[in-house]
Amino acid sequence: MKARVHIFYKDGVFDPQGNTVSQALQRQGFSRVASVRMGKVIDVEMNTTSTEEAKRDVQKMCDTLLVNPVIESYQIELINQGKG
Amino acid sequence: MKARVHIFYKDGVFDPQGNTVSQALQRQGFSRVASVRMGKVIDVEMNTTSTEEAKRDVQKMCDTLLVNPVIESYQIELINQGKG
Known about the structure:
Two copies of one chain form a homodimer.
Chain A: E1 2-9, H1 16-27, E2 33-46, H2 51-66, E3 72-79
Antiparallel strand pairs in A: 1-2, 1-3
């Protein structure tokens, strides 16, 4: 079972990296770029076939270790790869 | 039109950050964690309604600025938000 976690700054929190990339792209001639938000993506490969178990674990990882809840928000997506 | 770009190290390229997170999680008691890969996610908001145009632009951004093709690979996902 694989879990994909997306971590972004919360809306309203200034994203300096995204801002810099946005300006760089516009300077390079990509005039259609309106704004850019940068985030992290974490793929966690888990030794379990239970969706419930994986989800509970990953949620706990996010709440205790991976995410700073003051400025970041996260989304979890589970990808069941099967065995055959 | 929003484009979401996922950037990961290519398979076979050592991912030190993912490795560190994996070890930290296992130390914290998440024994079901097999491995972790860390990547970047970039949401690009574009002033266009054309999927073709957006895709071409974002592909060019990746090839020229956002991605290091020696060690990284990317995937583009277009999200048409509509107007109503």
